[in-house]
Amino acid sequence: IALPAxxxxxxxVLLDGVTPPPNPYGCSHSVPWFTARLGxxxxxxxGSRRDMPLADCLAAAITRTADAHRDxxxxxxxxxxxxxxxxxxxxxxxxxxxxxxxxxxxxxxxDGMVTPVLDSRLDELPHSVRALGAAARALxxxxxxxxxxxxxxxxxxxxxxxxxxxxxxxxxxxxVARRAVxxxxxxxxxxxxxxxxxxxxxxxxxxxxxxxxxxxALL
Length: 219
Ligand SMILES: [Zn+2]
Description:
Blueprint: E1 10-17, H1 31-48, H2 54-67, E2 83-90, E3 94-100, E4 104-108, E5 114-117, H3 127-138, H4 144-158, E6 181-186, E7 192-196, H5 198-205, H6 212-218
Antiparallel strand pairs: 1-2, 2-3, 3-6, 4-5, 4-7
Helix pairs in contact: 1-2, 3-4
The protein binds zinc ion.
């Protein structure tokens, strides 16, 4: 999104819903149901409560969404509906941002320089867990051993979901908002923004097709 030269204010929200497990996850609602409510509340609060820091807006939006199904669902389930988050809010003077989990924000300066804002906790999992992933990838593709090792790695990662020392998504606990990466940039230093889900960041991070500046130019 290109910021209007008029200095007009605005906000954007990107949520990437986490795919639910095939087995029951304590909730009768879908991930789209969850992201529609969380995203709606987050955009509304970001726009209407300019006195509230974005982390507080996220916490309030999580609480409001949890309240909508707290009486019918088990919100303590580790796979309760959840999402990764990017929020940006701007006015005539400044651009505020918040990034949680593996969605990312690119900030383009007037001179074309692109600064990525990343929550790298998924890349900083304990060595023992990353070693499981590397071991799985070293096994022959399509083999039963690779599938078994991959499943073991998956379980180790899942054990770190919204757990101390692991990685965090917006689920039902408003306290997660204080774990988000937040910051402020002077409006004069921002020409345009791009919020990317992890599917879009693969172009840079997995496929190594180019850097963040080239990714932004492609967008
Ligand atoms: Zn529910």
